[in-house]
Amino acid sequence: MFESDFIDLFSRTHPMIVPLLFVPGAAFGFVRNMTHGGQGFGVTLALFVGGFVAWTLAEYWLHRLFFHWTPPGRWGERMHFLVHGVHHTWPRDKYRLVMPPAVSISLYFIFLGIFWVTLGPHYAWGFHSGFVVGYMFYDLTHYYLHHFSPKTEYGRRLKKNHMLHHFKDHSKRYGVSNMLWDRVFGTAPR
């Protein structure tokens, strides 16, 4: 993908990197919300669930508005290819399905900062921990849908939905870990 093998190395990520990095990151946030945020288990759990649901909405809008946005010019085409086009070009590439750590770790802290400013220090960590688990669920579900055959009816519907996004119509079916927001926002074909 890159002329430099060294730079190309940083674009490849094994899917196990995701839980290795973010299970501790999410657990830390959950516990920190109770110990330093002054919230009990019930409030922290509610914040966690809220963060998880918020991730599903962020997943939909990031995929729809950012990943499928192509800015004008050659630079824009190149940027789009690096961000998401490579995935549509090689959807079975097992090392380019999850976000590289340099990007995902940066986003971890960017979103934590957003939640810190919007929710305050007493609620940010609990909400962020659910958001991070939502991200992990998305990234690992995405990998699974591309490389395995789901055993449940819902899993098979999710895989079919995502493969139709890849191979039939890139302007529909933006949800990967769920199909809810496609229905809500009218991007789920009948």
Structural commentary:
- With 190 residues, the protein is mostly helical.
- It has one domain (5-184).
- Helices cover 69% and strands 0% of the residues.
- The protein contains eight helices and no strands.
- It has helices spanning 5-9, 17-35, 41-67, 73-89, 101-119, 124-147, 153-167, 180-184.
- The longest helix is centred in the N-terminal third of the chain and has 27 residues, at 41-67.
- Tertiary shape: globular
User: How many domains would you count in the coordinates?
Assistant: 1
Radius of gyration equals: 17 Å
Fraction of residues in helix: 55-70%
What are the segments in which pLDDT stays under 50 over at least 5 consecutive residues? none
Order of helices and strands: HHHHHHHH
Short structural summary:
The protein has 190 residues and is an all-alpha fold. It has eight helices and no strands.
